[in-house]
Amino acid sequence: MRIAVTGRNGQIVQSLVERAAAAKIDLHTVARPELDLTRPETVEVALMVLRPDAIVNAAAYTDVDLAESEPSLVYRINEKGAEAAARAAAKLAIPIVQLSTDYVFDGNLDRPYRETDPTNPLGVYGCSKLAGERAVAIANDNHVILRTAWAYSPFSRNFARTMLALAREQRQLSVVGDQRGTPTCAFDIADGIITAIRNLLDRPSAQELRGIFHMTGGGETNWAAFATAILTASAAVGGPSARVIPISTAEYPTTVRRPANSRLDNSRLADLHGICLPHWQQSLQGCIDRIVAASASIDVSVG
Q1: How do the pLDDT tens digits run along the chain, 303 residues long?
Q2: Which site in 57, 204, 211, 275 is 20 to 30 Å from 100, CA atoms measured?
């Protein structure tokens, strides 16, 4: 099985590379300059030359607040770039997996969101990702759109790495405690993507395997409790720690309002694809171990 993945440095892409290598899957990342989502005309050529069995569009513009100041660029990447990747997959007669986000919802429901619930993004980023979903679905019937949330890993920029970096400098951290969701390890996301692709390739005529699915870890928490769990896991292996003070969203204003409820209902993915990611607490310690160990290695080499 050969998989082409857009992007190279993002945490899900790096997790896919690692998981694919362990499973002896032929995975190729493609990014700038060959593939530049700001220039959608480069996407199709770069992907088609690889002749993959499936494409994963993991590259995206993800800076939620900065997106408000450059919407044309955001849409060019998250909508037009996604559409170009889906068109390439359609020309090759192969499936595409499009990564999406909980930010397509406004967070006002009092239960986990289902795929059939109305969307209502709060900002440019969420609107652009929703536009990308629709563009992919139109360009290629053979698609899986995976909405995930609160991703973290030892790679790139994410909440876990940010909390540990802050804890090295501060003894007390103020973290929002009134937004709910499910932390999702990028390695678990990578495993889910690979399983979904296997299902699509094994059952090319199964329409029920195509469409929009939610994929997050099990359980739920809030940002402050997640931060506490991260720092507890870090302290257990000699890493940085700090006291977490829960605050309200109103006390931590951002350019774009975040969904108060980012919980996603994953039952459709479990029922149709047989994919059920581990509970968020189950995957946390191993990830934090790696971040702490990598930081210690850097500190030693610098010293």
Answers
A1: 999 999 999 999 999 999 999 999 999 999 999 999 888 889 989 998 999 999 999 999 999 999 999 999 999 999 999 999 999 999 999 999 999 999 999 999 999 999 999 999 999 999 999 999 999 999 999 999 999 999 999 999 999 999 999 999 999 999 999 999 999 999 999 999 999 999 999 999 999 999 999 999 999 999 999 999 999 999 999 999 999 999 999 999 999 999 999 999 999 999 999 999 999 999 999 999 999 999 876 553 433
A2: 204
Catalytic positions:
125
Domains and CATH numbers, the chain: 2-152+184-218+263-280 (3.40.50.720)
* Residue 116 neighbours by CB under 8 Å, 6+ apart: none
Residue from 144, 147, 151, 148 nearest 273 by CA:
144
Region label for 85, one of left (φ > 0), alpha (ψ between -120 and 50) or beta (otherwise): alpha
